[in-house]
User: What shape does this take?
Amino acid sequence: MTSPALDQLAGRVQAAARLVAENRALRALLQRGGDALAPEAAEEDLRISALTAANDRLRGQLIALHARIEQAEGPAARDLERAIWAFLRASVAARPSASTCGTGQRA
Assistant: This one.
């Protein structure tokens, strides 16, 4: 394989690993918020398209949970809200920026 091909393969492996980690973290937050989750086969299907579809569904559920938590009172709600914001910040930081996409470098 040539170097560009290896870089592309490495990028796909990193993307899949990031999505698996994000999906696990999303499920943990949703369970912490009391959302019942249907078992998903997303972790068994490591295609980026399947992982991305699961990530999109989970993020949609997180948005609904976040809206509910913002309206809730009490320290448990504030703790979960902080955890949601921490996840969102970490998620953005883990994604490659447009200027480094395809270069194998991280921002």
